[in-house]
Design brief:
Blueprint lengths: L1 E10 H19 L2 H8 L5 H15 L11 E6 L2 E6 L1 H9 L2 E9 L3 E10 L5
Antiparallel strand pairs: 1-5, 2-3, 4-5
Helix pairs in contact: 1-3, 2-3
Amino acid sequence: MILALGADLVEIARVRRLLARHGERALKRLFHEEELAYALALKDPAPSLAARLAAKEAFQKCWPESLSWKSVWVGMEGKKPFLRFAPDLEAAMREQGLLAHLTLSHERTHALAVVVLVRAPGAG
């Protein structure tokens, strides 16, 4: 059963400005090490980082409490992105029988993330 839907759109140029202005400090504050390892290995990390910011915001729109930037992050299984969670958030998701589905997309100027929060089959 779908419980919540969150979407967010991030301008890639905004991420480029953030990186130019705040550099490594912004990277360490906003992104999990797993996200940085993936994005910084790319020729142009800005679209990937923008998509990851969008994913964090999209999940926040589904979650009833405020979260820190590093409470949720994007992992990869091959080419498929998925959400990973800090231990306390992962425990809350498990206790409530929740699963989060993620899709990411980006083009020349914007990155998009959509999160669907569902109750796992068989969960109370």
